[in-house]
Amino acid sequence: MTSRFVAFTSLGRRALPNQWDFIALAVVVAAFVAVAKGSVGMTAPLTAPVTADLSLDYANLPYYALRTTLRMFAALSASLVFTFTYATLAAKSRRAEMVLIPLLDVLQSVPVLGFLSFTVTFFLGLFPGSTMGAELAAIFAIFTSQAWNMAFSFYQSLRTVPRDLEEVAEGYHFSPWQKFWQLEAPFAMPSLIWNMMMSMSGGWFFVVASEAISVGDTTIKLPGIGSYLALAIDAKRIDAVLAAVGVVVLVILAYDQFLFRPIVAFAAKFRVELSAGQTQEESWVRQLFLRTRFLRALVTTPARILDRIALLRLDMPHSEGLRLRWSGQAVTRIQDAIWFIAIAAMVGYSLYQVFEFVSEKLSLGDLRETVILTTYTMIRVFVLIVFASLFWVPISIFIGLRPRLAEKVQPMAQFLAAFPANVLFPIAVVLVVKFSLNPDIWLSGLIVFGTQWYIVFNVIGGAMAFPNDLREASVNYGIKGKYWWKDVILPAVFPYYVTGALTASGGSWNAAIVAEYVKWGDDKVAAHGIGAYIAQATEAGDYPKIVLGVAVMSIFVILFNRLLWRPLFALGERRLRIN
Amino acid sequence: MLDRPEGALLELINVSQTYTKGSGERDSLVLDNVSLTLKSGEIVGLLGRSGCGKSTLLRIVAGLVTPSKGEVSYLGARVRGPVQGVAMVFQSFALFPWLSVLDNVEIGLRTKGVPAEEARRRALAAIDTIGLDGFESAFPKELSGGMRQRVGFARGLVVEPNILLMDEPFSALDVLTAETLRTDLLDLWVEGRMPTNSILMVTHNIEEAVLMCDRIVVLSSNPGRIAAEMKVDLPHPRNRLDPEFRQLVDKIYALMTKRPAPERDGVFPGLGLGMALPHISTNTLAGMIEEVAAPPYNGKADLPALADSLNMEIDDLFPVAETLQLLRFAEVMEGDIKLTPAGLKFSDADIDARKKTFADHLLAYVPLAARIRRVLDERPSHRAPATRFQSELEDYMSEDRAEDTLKGVITWGRYGELFAFDEGSQTFSLENPGGE
């Protein structure tokens, strides 16, 4: 099976944050500040009307679905380009690696939805008065939800290319370009594709949130499923909400069948394994292409052209001589020194920017408030992951130990993880308002609503992988009840559980921004938490508060990942991995 | 027959290779002053045990590794980077799993810009030569080890290299497959159907070296130095049972088990506490003692014969024999292993007596084990973290080797019940779970 592992930067690194994490955080926050400052300056373009004429007519849904899907794929392409360049640079250059990887870690921990408002204003500023800016902003929002784990997975693969294959590439004189396409990219393919699928799932959540967004007085609505849904919520049309949900289901199923299954089946050959795999991924679409002559002809020509491009040498002139001449130790030290000074200057400037911006508008009281609110959200995320685990782990184990059942349930859980749970949030508002429930408690459920499925399918996978001989041994020695749970099955699924719970917790932080502040028409329900704080600040166009909220939340997420999940993951890998 | 140019194809002059440790303070020497000339028309074998740097030497020849000192020249020109005209065959085959057999063979030509049709024609010819007909469209994972290595050979030969380098090409194969491949390769070589001028192969298999090579270069370990060089003039095909063949094998065995230089007190590199220990299971040690004690050996065995009957390569056999020597359960000399009285006693004892004897010998002859025990005895808590000994060892050796040494001593100490070790907390202690 493909490794069921979402690439999390935090896991590949040391537990305690170091100076590089600090630097990365400073740079990221400074970037927000820069964008926020810039957008405060641009007042005119923001008033430009970018709201398309949208209607709740069902007949429009296919067209909206198409637009949304195209946006998703545009973002996915951008993520791929980013992955190939960013990760390659990080893997090939020691100096770049020192900065790029902590940066990736911070970016992966930043609640993407939090800085939606910055990017929207930024892109609108680039294309005043045109919908192009809004389109790019939406695509960028989706991109930020997809790119980081893909890039990190690619980086990890590049770092683990088998040495002997690397020597073949060198010994047979592959140029760097050829080595990339003949060795590195194929080797990274299985894990990259898995991460692409996960990214695509995550992307739905953001597409719904990013197509219709209000920043201060500006409201942007792009034609798409997300806007349709927002409109339906404003108009309190439950039937339209359900129709949108139905279309989302269809689209997700379609791209799974037409895109990912063929790709997974195709990518099976890139797995580095010693014997032919037991599991054979099937895809009827791929079979169709392979067996139908004119369809096959359709793909052979592009394939041949790509093949040619991959075999180009594209040698850098004289690069070798240069490298030899410059590789003296003293020279390396000097270059390092220059590099460090450059970084220090950049960080100093970043910190100054952040300090100036924040101190101008905010007080220590604001900081205290955000820390308290983030603590509330953290407790919420933690408690709900615990609840979801207590509920789902036993059920998932039950399912996973029954292969026939698991085969049917597993894809369903994966589908549910891809389903953007935020389309269902309005229904929660209706209930909270109707029964006047306490939002601090009842909105919390939404945080794990969409992410709990990661726990389900990972644990099912773990239970399915439980070796038969261990099963027989525990039956043979009469290990039952409490001992069976404590000493047999829970340790066996633990590494899988941690992977799932980690993914779920990452998603939940993001979901908090949408889940703690929910609307249904004019009814608004807010819980106490940093998510609601950011969402409300976004609505009010209060940039300093957004920057502060996002920064504090990012710091919490990083610490949460490092201090809770990473040690658990290491424990699972070291002690409990069954090989 | 190909035109084989006269004179030296490749020359290594006083090549040394040091490997810088993580901390950068102490460099460890992998290769020390190695000079080697490769001429046209010969098969040269680099024979040595693991850790003698023979694979590093091969990579220096290929231009994959730049030596820290010394010079490498190919056809008179200094080598800087991967050499054109040298192709390598790997122990692990190193085939691209996503390419078919044909694509794997073609890839070396395609990346050089050879036109598609010509690459195809030449690849098919190489596949035909090496006996892979019919497997062109198969993927490596569908093939057996032997077939995979044939692909490795075809990939090497298709570029018509001046020198073919082989890094233990048969050691990942089972005995029968390896023999077939060796014979097929030798046939091609003798018949002049190999499009290559010379072969340099690395091996740790003495018989293989004598069977295939025209010249054998024996490397000593830690650091790698040339210990001996000998010509093999026997005509092909060589017969393993030929007395001359046997004599040569025995001679090399004796050469490789020569008593260590007198300045050392053990058989392993390093002195006292700084002795690098192999990680060998106590079951293997006990098994070896029993094997040598039992008939037909009755306490004294010829190492080549023992290697044959146990089907062990020298890389497995020598460390075991030398550990027994270190623990004074056996003596190794002139290609023979002889049990000491203690070794004979061990073979007759029951489990508890064996453990007791083993513990005594461990304390007496392995300074590291004695040191760990003494520290534990002295401390009131009777506990000590592994990092303490690890860093002590790192004063003498590389981090990896220190780790291996510690692992070895943990296994032995546990068996002898000298101390306990907790994997989770990485601490040594005198606790005996459930006992005493």
From TrEMBL, chain A:
Residues 65-260, 374-564 form the ABC transmembrane type-1 domain. It is a multi-pass membrane protein. This is Sulfonate ABC transporter permease. GO terms for cellular component: plasma membrane. Keywords: Membrane, Transmembrane, Transmembrane helix, Transport. Gene3D superfamilies: MetI-like (1.10.3720.10). Its main location: membrane. The chain crosses the membrane at residues 20-44, 64-87, 99-124, 136-155, 240-260, 337-355, 375-401, 413-435, 441-467, 546-565. InterPro entries: MetI-like, MetI-like_sf. GO terms for biological process: transmembrane transport. It comes from the Bacteria. It is found in: Cell membrane. The keyword Transport applies. Belongs to the binding-protein-dependent transport system permease family. SUPFAM superfamilies: MetI-like.
From TrEMBL, chain B:
It holds the Pfam family AAA_assoc_C. SMART domains: AAA. This is Nitrate ABC transporter ATP-binding protein. Belongs to the ABC transporter superfamily. GO terms for molecular function: ATP binding; ATP hydrolysis activity. The keyword Transcription regulation does not apply. Coiled coil: none annotated. The keyword Lyase does not apply. Keywords: ATP-binding, Nucleotide-binding, Transport. InterPro entries: AAA+_ATPase, AAA-associated_dom_C, ABC_transporter-like_ATP-bd, ABC_transporter-like_CS, ABC_transporter_ATP-bind, P-loop_NTPase. Signal peptide: none annotated.
